[in-house]
Design brief:
Layout (H helix, E strand, L loop, with lengths): L7 E5 L4 H12 L3 E6 L14 E4 L7 H14 L4 E4 L3 H7 L9 E2 L4 H8 L1 H11 L7 E3 L2 H10 L3 E5 L9 E2 L21 E5 L5 E9 L2 E9 L3 E2 L3 E2 L1 E5 L2 H14 L5 E10 L2 E8 L11 H9 L6 E2 L5 E3 L1 H10 L1 H14 L1 E2 L7 H4 L2 H11 L7 H4 L16 H11 L4
Parallel strand pairs: 1-2, 1-4, 2-3, 4-5, 11-17, 18-19
Antiparallel strand pairs: 6-9, 7-8, 7-9, 10-11, 10-15, 11-14, 12-13, 14-18, 15-16
Length: 409
């Protein structure tokens, strides 16, 4: 997608800061961009770099209408490429046969996405690829859960289908005791993973892959987080090991894979251990320059774009929100960051988009039904996928989903 190739692109789930970043970067490099989300106040839908934006049905709750809405947008705006920014990727991939002919979905086939997203089957994939992982137990009922956490003096547990650091069961660290074992309900269809608590900082990656080749890659840490979960400050670090691991995982998964992949590792005593994969965009994309990202999405760059260590970006409005949530703890650091660290909006002259951020919080509050402590988890409630069969999916994808469930460790 270099300067010589002009595409018409649809970016979905435009509520995400990383979706807004993709919109700005593609729009600024000459491509025509359309955005969509399930509510009108999504930040990315108000970027000046858009040709148009639209509201669609929820992929999770009204899948058929969502696919119809996306198909209408593709036809109306002559879309060449759909870039999903969140878990609507699963619904689009499962129903790709119902999208208009000629449009390309920048996401892997449904089986690959499911295998990556299911944390239990991902652990199996990493093991087969020779990528280090923590010892892992998969539990499918309360008795197994209690026995598993009793096995480890310090433990860490989460659902096989979860995201964003929400819903973690642990007796160690800042989230210890936030969730109790009786609040967890593992089943055969919705299992949980239990691991020994692995000390060390979290290391995250973001990659674009085109036909099995990693075209762009960055590795970063999040020195500042919102509610000990979602990063709001992103610092690039050395990518040598994570790029090698990403290439191994892609090779084991599908040598022809195309899409976005984001991995989380723990840096334990100088060695990385793979924790999970998000087969979609994450905030790591904001560390990649516009021209490089555009070329990487098309695969026109001859060598992999690797973000140099030391590049740093932050989400200023989120930094301020965090500062005033816990002012004594965060305000001094936040003020320093606001002065010293480049914000994701710097240089874009696109301030109206981020002014819609409160609309996203309001949307999350509505999805959480007024439960303040669950707002973060509810922000994506209408666009997530938790391992269920998808309305209208092919028989082969349904069979593949069952096979993925059978690949759990």
């Amino acid at each position: 997608m270099g300067r010589g190739i002009i595409l018409r692109v649809l970016v979905t789930s435009s509520r995400n800061t990383f979706a807004l970043d993709i919109i700005r970067k593609l729009g600024s490099t000459g491509h025509t961009v359309v955005a969509s989300d399930t509510y009108a106040g999504a930040i990315g839908s108000h970027s000046k770099y858009l040709e148009a934006h639209a509201v669609t049905a929820s992929p999770r709750f009204k899948t058929d209408q969502f696919i119809a809405d996306i198909s209408e947008l593709v036809t109306k705006h002559n879309i060449d490429l759909i870039i999903p920014s969140f878990e609507e990727a699963f619904y689009l991939s499962a129903r790709v046969h119902d999208l208009p002919a000629g449009v390309t979905l920048f996401a892997g086939d449904f089986e690959s996405l499911a295998r990556l997203h299911d944390k239990a089957s991902f652990q199996r994939l990493a093991e087969q690829a020779g990528v280090p992982i923590p010892e892992t137990l998969v539990v499918t009922n309360t008795d197994e859960l209690n026995a598993a956490i009793a096995r480890y003096p310090r433990y860490f547990a989460r659902a096989a289908f979860s995201r964003g650091g929400v819903g973690l069961l642990t007796n160690t660290g800042p989230l210890a005791g936030k969730m109790q074992p009786e609040d967890c309900h593992p089943t055969v269809d919705q299992p949980w993973l239990v691991q020994p608590f692995v000390d060390g900082p979290m290391v995250c990656t973001y990659s674009t892959i085109v036909k099995g080749r990693v075209t762009a890659h960055c590795t970063y840490r999040a020195p500042e987080q919102w509610a000990h979960s979602t990063g709001i400050d992103f610092l690039a670090i050395d990518s040598t090991d994570t790029l090698a691991y990403t290439e191994k995982l892609v090779g084991e998964l599908d040598p022809n894979f195309t899409g976005q992949l984001s991995f989380d590792f723990v840096d334990h005593e100088g060695g990385l251990k793979a924790i999970e994969c998000n087969p979609r965009s994450t905030n790591g994309v904001i560390l990649i320059e516009a021209d490089a990202l555009a070329a990487a999405l098309e695969g026109t760059n001859e060598t992999t774009v690797v973000v140099e260590p030391g590049v740093e970006r932050q989400v200023s409005l989120a930094v301020l929100a965090d500062a005033f949530t816990e002012p004594i703890k965060h305000l001094p650091t936040s003020l320093h960051d606001l002065i010293k660290v480049r914000d994701i909006g710097a240089g874009w002259h696109d301030s109206i988009a981020m002014m819609w951020s409160p609309a996203t919080l309001i949307h999350g509050a509505k999805m959480a039904h007024g439960k303040r402590q669950e707002i973060l988890g509810a922000l994506g409630e209408d666009i997530v996928w938790n391992g269920e069969e998808i309305d209208g999916m092919s028989e082969s994808d349904a069979a593949a989903l069952e096979a993925v469930h059978g690949q759990r460790v």
